[in-house]
Design brief:
Keywords: Cell membrane, Glycosyltransferase, Membrane, Transferase, Transmembrane, Transmembrane helix. One of its GO terms (cellular component) is plasma membrane. It is a multi-pass membrane protein. It holds the Pfam family PMT_2. GO terms for molecular function: pentosyltransferase activity. Helix 5 crosses helix 15. Strands 4-3-5-7-6 form a five-stranded mixed beta sheet. Strands 1-2 form a two-stranded antiparallel sheet. It is built from 21 helices and seven strands. It folds into three domains: 326 residues, no CATH class; 88 residues; 98 residues, 3-Layer(aba) Sandwich (D-Maltodextrin-Binding Protein, domain 2), CATH 3.40.190. The chain is mainly alpha-helical. It is globular and about 85 Å long. The N and C termini lie far apart (82 Å). A hairpin with a 2-residue loop joins strand 6 and strand 7. The N terminus is likely disordered.
Length: 554
Protein backbone atom coordinates (compact mmCIF):
# COMPACT_ATOMS: atom_id res chain seq x y z
CA UNK A 1 0.00 0.00 0.00
CA UNK A 2 1.25 3.49 -0.77
CA UNK A 3 1.38 5.95 2.15
CA UNK A 4 -1.83 7.62 3.28
CA UNK A 5 -4.00 5.68 0.83
CA UNK A 6 -7.25 4.28 2.22
CA UNK A 7 -7.26 0.54 2.74
CA UNK A 8 -9.40 -1.14 0.11
CA UNK A 9 -9.16 -4.69 -1.07
CA UNK A 10 -8.41 -5.64 -4.66
CA UNK A 11 -12.04 -6.53 -5.36
CA UNK A 12 -13.32 -3.16 -4.10
CA UNK A 13 -10.72 -1.35 -6.23
CA UNK A 14 -11.89 -3.18 -9.35
CA UNK A 15 -15.52 -2.34 -8.63
CA UNK A 16 -14.65 1.31 -8.09
CA UNK A 17 -12.66 1.49 -11.33
CA UNK A 18 -15.43 -0.27 -13.26
CA UNK A 19 -17.93 2.30 -11.95
CA UNK A 20 -15.57 5.08 -13.09
CA UNK A 21 -15.46 3.59 -16.60
CA UNK A 22 -19.26 3.38 -16.77
CA UNK A 23 -19.57 7.01 -15.66
CA UNK A 24 -17.01 8.09 -18.27
CA UNK A 25 -18.73 6.16 -21.05
CA UNK A 26 -22.01 7.79 -20.11
CA UNK A 27 -20.40 11.25 -19.92
CA UNK A 28 -18.69 10.83 -23.30
CA UNK A 29 -21.88 9.75 -25.09
CA UNK A 30 -24.80 11.25 -23.18
CA UNK A 31 -25.26 14.14 -25.64
CA UNK A 32 -25.30 11.97 -28.79
CA UNK A 33 -29.10 11.45 -28.88
CA UNK A 34 -29.54 15.23 -28.98
CA UNK A 35 -27.00 16.23 -31.64
CA UNK A 36 -26.35 15.68 -35.34
CA UNK A 37 -23.37 14.10 -37.04
CA UNK A 38 -21.14 16.94 -38.18
CA UNK A 39 -17.56 17.97 -38.89
CA UNK A 40 -14.88 15.35 -39.53
CA UNK A 41 -17.10 12.49 -38.42
CA UNK A 42 -19.43 13.09 -41.40
CA UNK A 43 -17.22 11.24 -43.87
CA UNK A 44 -16.83 8.32 -41.45
CA UNK A 45 -20.60 8.17 -41.08
CA UNK A 46 -21.14 8.23 -44.85
CA UNK A 47 -18.80 5.26 -45.37
CA UNK A 48 -20.53 3.38 -42.55
CA UNK A 49 -23.90 4.22 -44.14
CA UNK A 50 -22.80 2.75 -47.48
CA UNK A 51 -21.68 -0.44 -45.70
CA UNK A 52 -24.94 -0.58 -43.73
CA UNK A 53 -26.99 -0.34 -46.94
CA UNK A 54 -24.76 -2.40 -49.23
CA UNK A 55 -22.90 -4.81 -46.95
CA UNK A 56 -19.40 -4.91 -45.48
CA UNK A 57 -16.57 -4.31 -47.93
CA UNK A 58 -12.79 -4.61 -47.62
CA UNK A 59 -12.37 -1.20 -49.26
CA UNK A 60 -14.44 1.66 -47.77
CA UNK A 61 -16.59 3.59 -50.25
CA UNK A 62 -17.75 7.20 -50.22
CA UNK A 63 -20.28 8.46 -52.78
CA UNK A 64 -20.13 5.06 -54.43
CA UNK A 65 -16.38 5.23 -55.10
CA UNK A 66 -13.49 3.52 -53.27
CA UNK A 67 -12.02 5.77 -50.60
CA UNK A 68 -8.26 5.08 -50.35
CA UNK A 69 -7.40 7.09 -47.22
CA UNK A 70 -8.26 4.50 -44.56
CA UNK A 71 -8.57 0.75 -44.10
CA UNK A 72 -12.03 -0.48 -43.07
CA UNK A 73 -11.89 -1.40 -39.35
CA UNK A 74 -13.54 1.74 -37.91
CA UNK A 75 -16.32 1.58 -40.50
CA UNK A 76 -16.91 -2.11 -39.80
CA UNK A 77 -17.41 -1.29 -36.12
CA UNK A 78 -19.72 1.65 -36.86
CA UNK A 79 -21.72 -0.58 -39.22
CA UNK A 80 -22.01 -3.25 -36.53
CA UNK A 81 -23.38 -0.71 -34.06
CA UNK A 82 -25.78 0.59 -36.73
CA UNK A 83 -27.31 -2.82 -37.44
CA UNK A 84 -29.86 -2.91 -34.55
CA UNK A 85 -31.65 0.16 -35.97
CA UNK A 86 -30.81 -0.55 -39.59
CA UNK A 87 -29.38 2.92 -40.10
CA UNK A 88 -26.43 5.06 -39.07
CA UNK A 89 -26.99 7.26 -36.03
CA UNK A 90 -24.82 9.65 -34.04
CA UNK A 91 -24.43 7.05 -31.30
CA UNK A 92 -23.41 4.25 -33.68
CA UNK A 93 -20.70 6.49 -35.18
CA UNK A 94 -19.43 7.67 -31.79
CA UNK A 95 -19.41 4.29 -30.01
CA UNK A 96 -16.19 2.93 -31.60
CA UNK A 97 -14.38 6.08 -30.50
CA UNK A 98 -15.96 6.22 -27.03
CA UNK A 99 -15.27 2.54 -26.31
CA UNK A 100 -11.69 2.98 -27.53
CA UNK A 101 -11.34 5.92 -25.13
CA UNK A 102 -12.58 3.76 -22.24
CA UNK A 103 -10.12 1.07 -23.31
CA UNK A 104 -7.29 3.62 -23.32
CA UNK A 105 -8.17 4.76 -19.81
CA UNK A 106 -8.10 1.10 -18.71
CA UNK A 107 -4.73 0.38 -20.35
CA UNK A 108 -3.25 3.55 -18.88
CA UNK A 109 -4.48 2.49 -15.45
CA UNK A 110 -2.91 -0.97 -15.88
CA UNK A 111 0.47 0.43 -16.89
CA UNK A 112 0.46 3.09 -14.18
CA UNK A 113 -0.66 0.59 -11.54
CA UNK A 114 2.55 -1.32 -12.19
CA UNK A 115 4.30 1.63 -10.54
CA UNK A 116 1.80 2.13 -7.72
CA UNK A 117 -1.93 2.12 -7.20
CA UNK A 118 -1.94 5.89 -6.81
CA UNK A 119 -0.05 6.38 -10.09
CA UNK A 120 -2.52 4.15 -11.90
CA UNK A 121 -5.49 6.12 -10.63
CA UNK A 122 -3.88 9.50 -11.28
CA UNK A 123 -2.83 8.56 -14.81
CA UNK A 124 -6.34 7.26 -15.61
CA UNK A 125 -8.01 10.41 -14.26
CA UNK A 126 -5.57 12.71 -16.03
CA UNK A 127 -6.15 10.95 -19.36
CA UNK A 128 -9.93 10.79 -18.92
CA UNK A 129 -10.21 14.54 -18.29
CA UNK A 130 -7.70 15.88 -20.83
CA UNK A 131 -10.01 18.29 -22.72
CA UNK A 132 -8.86 17.20 -26.17
CA UNK A 133 -9.24 13.52 -25.24
CA UNK A 134 -12.71 14.07 -23.75
CA UNK A 135 -14.06 15.90 -26.79
CA UNK A 136 -12.66 13.37 -29.28
CA UNK A 137 -14.00 10.47 -27.20
CA UNK A 138 -17.48 11.89 -27.79
CA UNK A 139 -17.08 12.18 -31.56
CA UNK A 140 -16.44 9.70 -34.37
CA UNK A 141 -12.63 9.83 -34.33
CA UNK A 142 -10.64 7.16 -36.18
CA UNK A 143 -7.43 8.22 -34.40
CA UNK A 144 -8.94 7.19 -31.05
CA UNK A 145 -9.29 3.61 -32.28
CA UNK A 146 -5.73 3.78 -33.64
CA UNK A 147 -4.47 5.05 -30.27
CA UNK A 148 -6.12 2.12 -28.49
CA UNK A 149 -4.51 -0.51 -30.71
CA UNK A 150 -1.10 1.21 -30.61
CA UNK A 151 -1.26 1.38 -26.82
CA UNK A 152 -2.41 -2.24 -26.55
CA UNK A 153 0.53 -3.32 -28.73
CA UNK A 154 3.05 -1.42 -26.60
CA UNK A 155 1.58 -2.82 -23.38
CA UNK A 156 1.67 -6.38 -24.73
CA UNK A 157 5.34 -5.88 -25.56
CA UNK A 158 6.01 -4.42 -22.12
CA UNK A 159 4.18 -7.07 -20.10
CA UNK A 160 5.65 -9.86 -22.21
CA UNK A 161 9.09 -8.45 -21.46
CA UNK A 162 8.34 -8.32 -17.71
CA UNK A 163 6.38 -11.59 -17.38
CA UNK A 164 7.97 -14.40 -15.40
CA UNK A 165 5.72 -17.32 -16.35
CA UNK A 166 5.78 -18.98 -19.76
CA UNK A 167 1.97 -18.88 -19.98
CA UNK A 168 1.82 -15.10 -19.52
CA UNK A 169 4.70 -14.52 -21.92
CA UNK A 170 2.93 -16.52 -24.63
CA UNK A 171 -0.37 -14.71 -23.95
CA UNK A 172 1.20 -11.28 -24.38
CA UNK A 173 3.30 -12.47 -27.33
CA UNK A 174 0.08 -13.52 -29.09
CA UNK A 175 -1.44 -10.09 -28.44
CA UNK A 176 1.40 -8.22 -30.16
CA UNK A 177 0.73 -9.32 -33.80
CA UNK A 178 -3.04 -9.22 -33.21
CA UNK A 179 -3.07 -5.60 -32.09
CA UNK A 180 -0.48 -4.63 -34.70
CA UNK A 181 -2.74 -6.04 -37.42
CA UNK A 182 -5.75 -4.21 -35.95
CA UNK A 183 -3.76 -0.96 -35.81
CA UNK A 184 -2.89 -1.44 -39.48
CA UNK A 185 -6.55 -2.12 -40.30
CA UNK A 186 -7.40 1.17 -38.59
CA UNK A 187 -5.00 3.57 -40.29
CA UNK A 188 -2.58 1.73 -42.51
CA UNK A 189 1.23 1.59 -42.14
CA UNK A 190 1.17 4.24 -39.42
CA UNK A 191 -0.35 1.63 -37.10
CA UNK A 192 2.88 -0.37 -37.37
CA UNK A 193 5.32 2.55 -37.35
CA UNK A 194 4.11 4.10 -34.06
CA UNK A 195 4.44 1.08 -31.72
CA UNK A 196 7.60 0.04 -33.57
CA UNK A 197 9.26 3.40 -32.92
CA UNK A 198 8.17 3.46 -29.27
CA UNK A 199 9.32 -0.06 -28.38
CA UNK A 200 12.39 0.01 -30.61
CA UNK A 201 13.45 3.32 -29.07
CA UNK A 202 12.99 1.90 -25.59
CA UNK A 203 15.17 -1.13 -26.40
CA UNK A 204 17.86 1.20 -27.75
CA UNK A 205 17.63 3.32 -24.61
CA UNK A 206 18.15 0.15 -22.56
CA UNK A 207 21.11 -0.83 -24.85
CA UNK A 208 19.53 -4.17 -25.76
CA UNK A 209 20.92 -4.33 -29.27
CA UNK A 210 20.16 -8.00 -29.86
CA UNK A 211 16.50 -7.44 -28.97
CA UNK A 212 16.45 -4.41 -31.29
CA UNK A 213 17.56 -6.56 -34.22
CA UNK A 214 15.02 -9.31 -33.47
CA UNK A 215 12.20 -6.82 -32.99
CA UNK A 216 13.11 -5.03 -36.23
CA UNK A 217 12.93 -8.32 -38.16
CA UNK A 218 9.57 -9.13 -36.60
CA UNK A 219 8.25 -5.66 -37.42
CA UNK A 220 9.47 -5.88 -41.02
CA UNK A 221 7.70 -9.23 -41.48
CA UNK A 222 4.46 -7.85 -40.02
CA UNK A 223 4.70 -4.76 -42.20
CA UNK A 224 5.30 -6.75 -45.39
CA UNK A 225 2.47 -9.13 -44.54
CA UNK A 226 -0.06 -6.38 -43.80
CA UNK A 227 0.93 -4.06 -46.65
CA UNK A 228 1.19 -6.90 -49.15
CA UNK A 229 -2.24 -8.22 -48.16
CA UNK A 230 -3.85 -4.78 -48.42
CA UNK A 231 -2.33 -4.00 -51.83
CA UNK A 232 -3.33 -7.40 -53.17
CA UNK A 233 -6.95 -6.79 -52.14
CA UNK A 234 -6.86 -3.24 -53.51
CA UNK A 235 -5.43 -4.38 -56.85
CA UNK A 236 -8.09 -7.04 -57.20
CA UNK A 237 -10.79 -4.46 -56.40
CA UNK A 238 -9.66 -1.45 -58.43
CA UNK A 239 -6.53 -2.34 -60.39
CA UNK A 240 -3.18 -0.58 -60.48
CA UNK A 241 -4.76 2.89 -60.42
CA UNK A 242 -6.40 2.27 -57.05
CA UNK A 243 -3.11 0.83 -55.73
CA UNK A 244 -1.36 4.08 -56.62
CA UNK A 245 -4.12 6.06 -54.90
CA UNK A 246 -3.81 4.00 -51.70
CA UNK A 247 -0.01 4.41 -51.60
CA UNK A 248 -0.39 8.13 -52.25
CA UNK A 249 -3.06 8.75 -49.61
CA UNK A 250 -1.70 6.50 -46.86
CA UNK A 251 2.05 7.14 -47.31
CA UNK A 252 3.49 9.66 -49.77
CA UNK A 253 0.94 12.46 -49.35
CA UNK A 254 1.50 12.45 -45.58
CA UNK A 255 5.25 12.83 -45.98
CA UNK A 256 6.15 14.75 -49.11
CA UNK A 257 3.54 17.51 -49.29
CA UNK A 258 3.84 21.06 -48.05
CA UNK A 259 3.09 21.24 -44.32
CA UNK A 260 -0.36 22.57 -43.45
CA UNK A 261 0.89 23.91 -40.08
CA UNK A 262 4.27 25.21 -38.81
CA UNK A 263 6.74 22.79 -37.20
CA UNK A 264 5.91 24.05 -33.68
CA UNK A 265 2.19 23.36 -34.14
CA UNK A 266 2.21 20.25 -31.93
CA UNK A 267 4.00 22.07 -29.11
CA UNK A 268 1.03 24.43 -28.99
CA UNK A 269 -1.32 21.43 -29.05
CA UNK A 270 0.46 19.87 -26.06
CA UNK A 271 -0.31 22.90 -23.91
CA UNK A 272 -4.00 22.35 -24.52
CA UNK A 273 -3.82 18.57 -24.12
CA UNK A 274 -2.55 18.61 -20.55
CA UNK A 275 -4.56 21.73 -19.68
CA UNK A 276 -4.70 22.26 -15.89
CA UNK A 277 -2.74 19.08 -15.23
CA UNK A 278 0.46 20.81 -16.36
CA UNK A 279 0.39 22.66 -13.02
CA UNK A 280 1.65 19.54 -11.31
CA UNK A 281 4.82 19.51 -13.41
CA UNK A 282 6.11 22.40 -11.31
CA UNK A 283 7.85 20.15 -8.72
CA UNK A 284 9.65 18.20 -11.48
CA UNK A 285 10.81 21.42 -13.16
CA UNK A 286 11.88 22.83 -9.81
CA UNK A 287 14.03 19.76 -9.08
CA UNK A 288 15.47 19.94 -12.61
CA UNK A 289 16.37 23.60 -12.13
CA UNK A 290 17.92 22.94 -8.70
CA UNK A 291 19.99 20.07 -10.15
CA UNK A 292 21.29 22.28 -12.97
CA UNK A 293 22.26 25.05 -10.57
CA UNK A 294 24.07 22.60 -8.31
CA UNK A 295 25.72 20.18 -10.74
CA UNK A 296 25.53 21.73 -14.21
CA UNK A 297 23.41 20.93 -17.28
CA UNK A 298 24.60 17.39 -18.00
CA UNK A 299 24.47 16.15 -14.41
CA UNK A 300 21.16 17.95 -13.84
CA UNK A 301 19.63 16.31 -16.90
CA UNK A 302 20.83 12.87 -15.81
CA UNK A 303 19.41 13.48 -12.35
CA UNK A 304 16.03 14.40 -13.85
CA UNK A 305 15.92 11.29 -16.04
CA UNK A 306 13.38 8.74 -14.77
CA UNK A 307 14.80 5.85 -12.75
CA UNK A 308 12.01 3.32 -13.29
CA UNK A 309 12.01 1.46 -16.63
CA UNK A 310 8.30 2.19 -17.16
CA UNK A 311 9.01 5.91 -17.01
CA UNK A 312 11.77 5.52 -19.59
CA UNK A 313 9.35 3.59 -21.81
CA UNK A 314 6.68 6.29 -21.59
CA UNK A 315 9.23 9.05 -22.18
CA UNK A 316 10.56 7.35 -25.34
CA UNK A 317 7.00 6.55 -26.41
CA UNK A 318 5.99 10.19 -25.99
CA UNK A 319 9.04 11.66 -27.76
CA UNK A 320 9.08 9.17 -30.65
CA UNK A 321 5.38 9.69 -31.43
CA UNK A 322 5.76 13.46 -31.23
CA UNK A 323 8.81 13.33 -33.55
CA UNK A 324 7.04 11.16 -36.15
CA UNK A 325 4.03 13.46 -36.41
CA UNK A 326 6.22 16.59 -36.38
CA UNK A 327 8.19 15.26 -39.37
CA UNK A 328 4.99 14.46 -41.29
CA UNK A 329 3.66 17.14 -43.62
CA UNK A 330 0.01 16.77 -42.60
CA UNK A 331 -0.52 17.95 -39.02
CA UNK A 332 -3.73 17.83 -37.01
CA UNK A 333 -4.25 17.83 -33.25
CA UNK A 334 -6.18 14.55 -33.32
CA UNK A 335 -3.09 12.75 -34.65
CA UNK A 336 -1.44 13.07 -31.22
CA UNK A 337 -3.95 10.75 -29.52
CA UNK A 338 -1.50 7.76 -29.52
CA UNK A 339 0.84 9.65 -27.17
CA UNK A 340 -1.86 10.63 -24.65
CA UNK A 341 -1.41 7.53 -22.40
CA UNK A 342 2.35 8.10 -22.19
CA UNK A 343 1.86 11.78 -21.42
CA UNK A 344 -0.73 10.97 -18.75
CA UNK A 345 1.68 8.63 -16.93
CA UNK A 346 4.45 11.23 -17.10
CA UNK A 347 2.09 13.85 -15.67
CA UNK A 348 1.00 11.38 -12.99
CA UNK A 349 4.67 10.93 -12.05
CA UNK A 350 4.87 14.64 -11.31
CA UNK A 351 1.61 14.54 -9.38
CA UNK A 352 2.04 11.33 -7.39
CA UNK A 353 4.03 12.64 -4.43
CA UNK A 354 2.07 15.87 -4.02
CA UNK A 355 -0.19 14.57 -1.23
CA UNK A 356 2.93 13.91 0.86
CA UNK A 357 4.71 17.20 0.07
CA UNK A 358 4.15 20.94 0.28
CA UNK A 359 4.74 21.58 -3.43
CA UNK A 360 1.18 22.92 -3.82
CA UNK A 361 0.73 25.48 -1.05
CA UNK A 362 -2.45 26.93 0.42
CA UNK A 363 -5.05 24.28 -0.47
CA UNK A 364 -7.76 26.73 0.65
CA UNK A 365 -6.94 28.89 -2.37
CA UNK A 366 -7.50 25.88 -4.65
CA UNK A 367 -10.76 25.11 -2.88
CA UNK A 368 -12.05 28.68 -3.24
CA UNK A 369 -11.00 28.98 -6.88
CA UNK A 370 -12.57 25.67 -7.82
CA UNK A 371 -15.73 26.62 -5.95
CA UNK A 372 -16.02 29.86 -7.93
CA UNK A 373 -15.61 27.94 -11.19
CA UNK A 374 -18.31 25.47 -10.16
CA UNK A 375 -20.67 28.33 -9.33
CA UNK A 376 -19.83 29.93 -12.69
CA UNK A 377 -20.67 26.69 -14.51
CA UNK A 378 -24.02 26.43 -12.75
CA UNK A 379 -24.89 30.09 -13.37
CA UNK A 380 -23.94 29.72 -17.04
CA UNK A 381 -26.22 26.69 -17.27
CA UNK A 382 -29.17 28.58 -15.82
CA UNK A 383 -28.42 31.64 -17.98
CA UNK A 384 -28.20 29.51 -21.11
CA UNK A 385 -31.64 28.06 -20.40
CA UNK A 386 -33.20 31.48 -19.71
CA UNK A 387 -31.51 33.54 -22.45
CA UNK A 388 -31.25 31.04 -25.31
CA UNK A 389 -34.20 28.66 -24.94
CA UNK A 390 -34.46 28.06 -28.70
CA UNK A 391 -30.93 26.59 -28.70
CA UNK A 392 -31.74 24.05 -25.97
CA UNK A 393 -32.04 20.67 -27.68
CA UNK A 394 -31.84 18.46 -24.58
CA UNK A 395 -34.50 17.84 -21.93
CA UNK A 396 -34.27 20.28 -19.05
CA UNK A 397 -34.18 17.38 -16.50
CA UNK A 398 -30.88 16.26 -18.05
CA UNK A 399 -29.39 19.69 -17.39
CA UNK A 400 -30.73 19.63 -13.82
CA UNK A 401 -29.13 16.20 -13.29
CA UNK A 402 -25.82 17.64 -14.51
CA UNK A 403 -26.12 20.56 -12.07
CA UNK A 404 -26.94 18.22 -9.19
CA UNK A 405 -24.00 15.93 -10.02
CA UNK A 406 -21.56 18.86 -10.14
CA UNK A 407 -22.85 20.26 -6.84
CA UNK A 408 -22.76 16.82 -5.22
CA UNK A 409 -19.19 16.25 -6.39
CA UNK A 410 -18.14 19.55 -4.84
CA UNK A 411 -19.68 18.61 -1.49
CA UNK A 412 -18.07 15.14 -1.51
CA UNK A 413 -14.63 16.59 -2.23
CA UNK A 414 -14.94 19.10 0.60
CA UNK A 415 -16.18 16.56 3.12
CA UNK A 416 -14.44 13.30 2.19
CA UNK A 417 -11.14 14.09 0.41
CA UNK A 418 -8.18 14.97 2.61
CA UNK A 419 -6.27 18.21 2.05
CA UNK A 420 -3.29 16.68 0.22
CA UNK A 421 -5.41 15.07 -2.49
CA UNK A 422 -7.95 17.86 -2.70
CA UNK A 423 -6.22 19.91 -5.46
CA UNK A 424 -6.17 16.82 -7.72
CA UNK A 425 -9.83 16.04 -7.01
CA UNK A 426 -10.84 19.67 -7.61
CA UNK A 427 -9.12 19.81 -11.00
CA UNK A 428 -10.83 16.55 -11.98
CA UNK A 429 -14.22 17.96 -10.96
CA UNK A 430 -13.70 21.30 -12.74
CA UNK A 431 -12.63 19.66 -16.00
CA UNK A 432 -15.34 16.98 -15.89
CA UNK A 433 -18.03 19.56 -15.09
CA UNK A 434 -16.97 21.98 -17.82
CA UNK A 435 -16.49 19.38 -20.54
CA UNK A 436 -19.69 17.47 -19.82
CA UNK A 437 -21.58 20.77 -19.73
CA UNK A 438 -20.24 21.70 -23.17
CA UNK A 439 -21.24 18.28 -24.49
CA UNK A 440 -24.73 18.63 -23.12
CA UNK A 441 -25.63 22.24 -23.86
CA UNK A 442 -23.36 23.61 -26.59
CA UNK A 443 -22.64 20.72 -28.99
CA UNK A 444 -26.28 19.95 -29.92
CA UNK A 445 -26.81 23.54 -31.08
CA UNK A 446 -23.44 23.70 -32.87
CA UNK A 447 -23.96 20.37 -34.60
CA UNK A 448 -27.41 21.19 -35.91
CA UNK A 449 -26.16 24.40 -37.45
CA UNK A 450 -23.11 22.74 -39.01
CA UNK A 451 -24.57 19.45 -40.22
CA UNK A 452 -26.99 20.81 -42.83
CA UNK A 453 -29.51 18.06 -42.08
CA UNK A 454 -32.45 20.47 -41.82
CA UNK A 455 -31.63 22.02 -45.20
CA UNK A 456 -31.23 18.67 -46.96
CA UNK A 457 -34.53 17.35 -45.60
CA UNK A 458 -36.36 20.56 -46.51
CA UNK A 459 -34.94 20.57 -50.05
CA UNK A 460 -35.68 16.94 -50.86
CA UNK A 461 -39.18 17.12 -49.42
CA UNK A 462 -40.05 19.42 -52.34
CA UNK A 463 -39.11 16.87 -55.01
CA UNK A 464 -40.22 13.36 -55.85
CA UNK A 465 -38.06 10.49 -54.70
CA UNK A 466 -37.05 9.69 -58.30
CA UNK A 467 -35.98 13.26 -59.07
CA UNK A 468 -32.18 13.34 -59.51
CA UNK A 469 -30.10 15.68 -57.35
CA UNK A 470 -27.41 17.82 -58.98
CA UNK A 471 -24.91 19.63 -56.72
CA UNK A 472 -23.27 22.66 -58.29
CA UNK A 473 -19.79 24.04 -57.45
CA UNK A 474 -19.62 22.12 -54.16
CA UNK A 475 -16.72 19.74 -53.53
CA UNK A 476 -17.72 16.08 -53.41
CA UNK A 477 -15.00 15.53 -50.79
CA UNK A 478 -16.07 18.52 -48.69
CA UNK A 479 -19.58 19.81 -48.10
CA UNK A 480 -20.85 17.33 -50.69
CA UNK A 481 -20.17 14.55 -48.19
CA UNK A 482 -22.32 16.35 -45.62
CA UNK A 483 -25.19 16.64 -48.11
CA UNK A 484 -24.85 12.98 -49.13
CA UNK A 485 -24.97 11.72 -45.53
CA UNK A 486 -28.36 13.29 -44.81
CA UNK A 487 -29.81 12.76 -48.29
CA UNK A 488 -32.53 10.16 -48.82
CA UNK A 489 -30.90 9.31 -52.18
CA UNK A 490 -28.17 6.74 -52.57
CA UNK A 491 -24.84 8.57 -52.38
CA UNK A 492 -23.70 7.05 -55.68
CA UNK A 493 -26.65 8.70 -57.52
CA UNK A 494 -25.74 12.26 -56.54
CA UNK A 495 -24.22 14.21 -59.42
CA UNK A 496 -21.54 16.85 -58.81
CA UNK A 497 -20.84 19.46 -61.50
CA UNK A 498 -18.53 22.48 -61.72
CA UNK A 499 -18.66 25.58 -63.89
CA UNK A 500 -21.63 27.28 -65.58
CA UNK A 501 -21.22 25.36 -68.85
CA UNK A 502 -22.03 22.10 -67.08
CA UNK A 503 -25.49 23.50 -66.32
CA UNK A 504 -26.43 23.04 -69.99
CA UNK A 505 -26.42 19.28 -69.66
CA UNK A 506 -28.12 18.74 -66.31
CA UNK A 507 -31.11 16.38 -66.49
CA UNK A 508 -34.59 17.80 -66.17
CA UNK A 509 -36.50 17.57 -63.99
CA UNK A 510 -33.89 17.73 -61.20
CA UNK A 511 -33.21 19.27 -57.83
CA UNK A 512 -30.28 21.68 -58.11
CA UNK A 513 -28.25 22.51 -54.98
CA UNK A 514 -25.99 25.58 -55.14
CA UNK A 515 -24.35 28.13 -52.88
CA UNK A 516 -25.96 31.55 -52.68
CA UNK A 517 -22.73 33.19 -53.79
CA UNK A 518 -23.08 31.40 -57.17
CA UNK A 519 -26.47 33.02 -57.78
CA UNK A 520 -25.06 35.72 -60.04
CA UNK A 521 -23.03 33.23 -62.05
CA UNK A 522 -26.09 31.05 -62.70
CA UNK A 523 -28.32 34.00 -63.61
CA UNK A 524 -25.87 35.56 -66.08
CA UNK A 525 -24.82 32.25 -67.51
CA UNK A 526 -26.99 29.37 -68.48
CA UNK A 527 -29.72 29.27 -65.88
CA UNK A 528 -31.83 32.46 -65.70
CA UNK A 529 -34.54 32.96 -63.06
CA UNK A 530 -37.42 31.70 -65.22
CA UNK A 531 -35.77 28.30 -65.55
CA UNK A 532 -35.61 27.49 -61.84
CA UNK A 533 -37.98 27.56 -58.88
CA UNK A 534 -36.46 28.14 -55.41
CA UNK A 535 -37.81 25.54 -52.98
CA UNK A 536 -35.53 25.74 -49.88
CA UNK A 537 -32.76 27.75 -48.28
CA UNK A 538 -30.41 26.85 -45.46
CA UNK A 539 -26.84 26.22 -44.34
CA UNK A 540 -24.17 23.57 -44.31
CA UNK A 541 -21.63 24.78 -41.78
CA UNK A 542 -21.39 28.55 -42.33
CA UNK A 543 -22.20 28.39 -46.04
CA UNK A 544 -25.60 29.51 -47.26
CA UNK A 545 -27.19 27.26 -49.87
CA UNK A 546 -30.37 27.19 -51.92
CA UNK A 547 -32.28 24.38 -53.59
CA UNK A 548 -33.96 24.93 -56.98
CA UNK A 549 -36.40 22.71 -58.82
CA UNK A 550 -35.76 22.51 -62.55
CA UNK A 551 -38.86 21.21 -64.28
CA UNK A 552 -38.96 19.13 -67.43
CA UNK A 553 -38.87 21.12 -70.66
CA UNK A 554 -37.03 24.13 -69.26
Amino acid sequence: MTPHMPKTNHYDSRILFFCLLLCLLFAYTWATPFRDIYGLETRNALMAREMTEGGLTLIPHALGRPYPDYPPLYFWMATLFSMPLGQVSTLSIVLPSALSAIGLVTLTFCLGRGISRRTGWLAALILATCPDFWMKAGSGTIDMLLAFHVTATILCLWFRDRATSFKNRMLYATGVPVFLALAFLTKGPLGIVLPGAAWGGYLLCERRLRDVVLFSLFLACMGLLCIGGELAIVRKTGGAELVREVVKMQVTERLGQKANHPFYYYLICLAGIGHLWWIFCYPVLARFRAGIQKNGWIAGFRQAMPVRPVYRLTLVWFLSTLAIFTLASTRHGRYLLPLFPALSILLAAGTERLPDRDDIPHPRIWETGAGLLIVLFLVDGVGFILLYPRFIFVPIPSILIWMAAVSGGWVVIRKRIRDGLRPVALIFLVLAAGLSGVNLMALPAISRRASGRAFVMAAESQAEARTPVVIYNISADGDGVKYALHSSRKPSTLRFIDGPEALRNVPRPCLLIARDRDEKEMRQGFLPDERRTPVARGRIRSKRLSAYLLKAGH
